[in-house]
Amino acid sequence: MIKLYLMKISGLEPDDIKWKKHVSPKRYKKMLSYRQKKDRGLSLGVELLLNAALQELYPGIRCPVTWGEDENGKPYLPDYPAVYFNLSHAEEYAVCALSDAALGVDIEYCADIDGDIARSYFLSQEYEYILGKPESERLEAFYNLWVLKESYMKACGAGFRLALDAFCIQIGDRITLIKDGQIQPCSFFLTQFENYKLAVCYQGNEDASITPIFCEQQNLYLTSKKREE
């Protein structure tokens, strides 16, 4: 079971004191540490989204939930060890993925980049994969690789302690990850909306049915609905 929630944080006022009771003390303190209002809004938004998702899927969980971090900085729920989650945000969107097994999620806004970034951080075969695309498709190819890589790094709990060129992503009929010469037992969900790329990495070799659920902020609570086509 994998559930993927997204919320646009436009209009969210992170400096309103009312939010203090809707997030954990740890999150509230972290949010206030950001100098830019936009960053405070994203930090607030991911935990509001987490709590809304937990209330929908696990009504017995008391929110705002208390979360901790393991030795690598990966967040977890100490009071609910069978519930796994991962968070990400970019520009105007916050993302929360929930499952009954470890997973990672990453979202990126597809801004223009210097092509040398791929050459510097990716493996040569990944860089060649990008160059093999028509010029108009290379930016998309770059972000496909980036979100897939970061979702895996977050799923395994290493984050950027694991170098981007320590493993290889191969995009074909299936997305395959090769590390230390071996195909790894993980699968991916990759999608695009507006000008964003989003990937989820999860355990196992079977394709999971994942439908992103877009949430709306209304007053002091969140309601979710599937995005209309």
Automatic annotation (TrEMBL):
Record has Ubl conjugation as a keyword: no
Molecular function in Gene Ontology: holo-[acyl-carrier-protein] synthase activity; magnesium ion binding
UniProt keyword Transferase present: yes
SUPFAM superfamilies per the UniProt record, alphabetical: 4'-phosphopantetheinyl transferase
Any GO CC annotation of this UniProt entry: cytosol
Recorded superkingdom: Bacteria
Keywords: Transferase
Gene Ontology terms describing biological process: lysine biosynthetic process via aminoadipic acid
Matching InterPro entries: 4-PPantetheinyl_Trfase_dom, 4-PPantetheinyl_Trfase_dom_sf, P-Pant_transferase_sf
Domain 4'-phosphopantetheinyl transferase positions: 103-201
Annotated family: Belongs to the P-Pant transferase superfamily. Gsp/Sfp/HetI/AcpT family.
The protein, known as: 4'-phosphopantetheinyl transferase domain-containing protein
Organism annotation: Syntrophomonas wolfei
